[in-house]
Design goal:
The chain is of the alpha+beta class. About 25% of the residues lie in helices and about 30% in strands. It has one domain: 3-Layer(aba) Sandwich (Aminopeptidase), CATH 3.40.630.30. Strands 1, 2, 3, 4, 5, 6, 7 and 8 form an eight-stranded mixed beta sheet that branches. α2 links the parallel β4 and β5. The mean pLDDT is about 90.
Length: about 160
């Protein structure tokens, strides 16, 4: 397999509305973009980030405050709607977006970060310190997933970026 060349990119905040076309294209093509409003999208503490290559939005990710099922922690946050266009994967964009979310959570006193990740993304999350909680499960519209989580240290993770 030919290695992809490095890509110059930027990661920065975007609006919830700006995430929806990418959520539609990459994650849920069977739903209209206006249907892809996730719980917590408009919460004032939430953060939406985009990865840009040459000014073009090629990846999105969101983090919202919300409890992890089965874990009583009032300082938990959930990663939602993380997506990168296939032709831009493997270039560090997803890692950079997730690090921005981790720093945001740490800066807001979060202690747990979790997500329901598609099975093909499992290795990506594990490389960034996430662990599985339970086995694989099926989300009917989206396919097989794992619940993943990691502890957040407000002191050290707030400097990730």
């Amino acid at each position: 397999m030919k290695e992809r060349e490095p890509t110059d990119f930027e990661v920065g905040p975007i609006t919830a509305a700006e995430t929806r076309p990418m959520r539609h294209k990459v994650l849920r093509p069977h739903q209209a973009p206006e249907e892809l409003v996730y719980p917590g999208d408009e919460a004032p503490e939430s953060l939406h980030v985009g990865a840009f290559v040459g000014g073009r939005l090629v990846g999105v990710a969101t983090v919202v405050p919300g409890p992890m099922p089965g874990i009583p922690d009032e300082h938990a946050w959930q990663v939602r709607g993380m997506a990168t266009l296939p032709e831009f994967r493997g270039r560090g964009l997803g890692t950079a977006m997730l690090r921005a979310l981790i720093a945001h959570v740490a800066g807001h006193g979060g202690t747990v970060l979790w997500c329901n990740a598609r099975t093909p993304a499992l290795r990506f999350y594990k490389r960034l310190g996430f662990a599985t909680r339970g086995g694989e499960f099926l989300i009917p519209i989206s396919g097989p997933h794992y619940m993943l989580w990691r502890a957040i240290s407000p002191k050290s993770d707030s400097r990730i970026g």
